[in-house]
Amino acid sequence: MPVKFRKMFGLGNDFIVIDARQDSKLSAAAEPRRATALTDRKTGIGCDQLIILEACEDAMCRMRIINADGSEVGACGNATRCIGGLLFQEKPDAPEATIRTKAGLLRCFKCEDPDMITVDMGEPGLKWEQVPVSKEVDTLHCKEACEGPGLTDCACCSMGNPHATFFVDDCEKVPLQEIGHDLEHHAFFPERCNVSVVTVSKDKKSIRMRVWERGTGITLACGTGACATAVNAIRRGYVGKAENYTTEVKMDGGSLVITYAPPGSGGEKEGHVLMTGRFDTAFTGEIPDSLWG
Ligand SMILES: N[C@H](CCC[C@H](N)C(=O)O)C(=O)O
């Protein structure tokens, strides 16, 4: 029986989704050899991440995230919106959609626009050991990894996966394709990292972001990266109470609206990161036996 999949994407960040909730044997897709065969854009079906849904006792599903290089990781914001949308299509009257990942339990909420989802991405990890980075530093101002043209100023945090945000005058000019791999693998990041180069708009209402993703390379959008960028910009005071701790993160594939009211700032969700944006389903298909092996 051929294995079915859905091709979904969030702002151009694209996913092969395999639903193993009724057949746990399909979790075999997570094996690195099979995962990389599927994600390969030349010889496979092609995607940034492979997403596997599994049955879960304390959530509507478990979501496993495998990067294009076969590495399994803890969080994927764009995929979380896609799976949240899928769960609401299955249960339209559910007040929320819950997804368990390696990083924790995520709650998704419907928006007025049926193609949009809001996700409570939980609390960012702000301590050096939470990111993680290799030594005790102030994660808001890290000089250690600033090795690249124009990179002098980095802030780090975890969204269930490690992120480095480089604030620069003009992120369009950063040669991310050339320097992304070395930054991802910099010794300062013992679990590697996702790298964003960002420029805050003059009116403080938005942030332009380009991203090199751990285990995948440059993508059109990164949900957890947009969250990390907004958290680090708010921590630095580039966006604040006047903007209701909300900013728009503009990526190559489109924008996400992120709210992060820091602990003690008031508000029912203070300390949590809320991400709102589109999700799309492109098509469904069957995996050729040659790729499943
Ligand atoms: N490359 C990331 C996983 C996917 C994150 C991204 N696609 C998102 O939307 O958050 C990592 O290794 O942590």
Automatic annotation (TrEMBL):
Reactions catalysed, as given in the entry:
(2S,6S)-2,6-diaminopimelate = meso-2,6-diaminopimelate
Cite a single GO BP annotation.
lysine biosynthetic process via diaminopimelate
Database matches in InterPro entries: DAP_epimerase_AS, DAP_epimerase_DapF
Keywords for the protein's UniProt record, in alphabetical order:
Amino-acid biosynthesis, Isomerase, Lysine biosynthesis
Gene Ontology cellular component annotations, sorted alphabetically: cytosol
Which is one GO molecular function term here? diaminopimelate epimerase activity
- Give any Pfam family that matches: DAP_epimerase
For this chain, the family text in UniProt reads: Belongs to the diaminopimelate epimerase family.
Q: What is the recorded name of this protein?
A: diaminopimelate epimerase
Originating organism? Guillardia theta (strain CCMP2712) (Cryptophyte)
Lineage of the organism:
Eukaryota, Cryptophyceae, Pyrenomonadales, Geminigeraceae, Guillardia
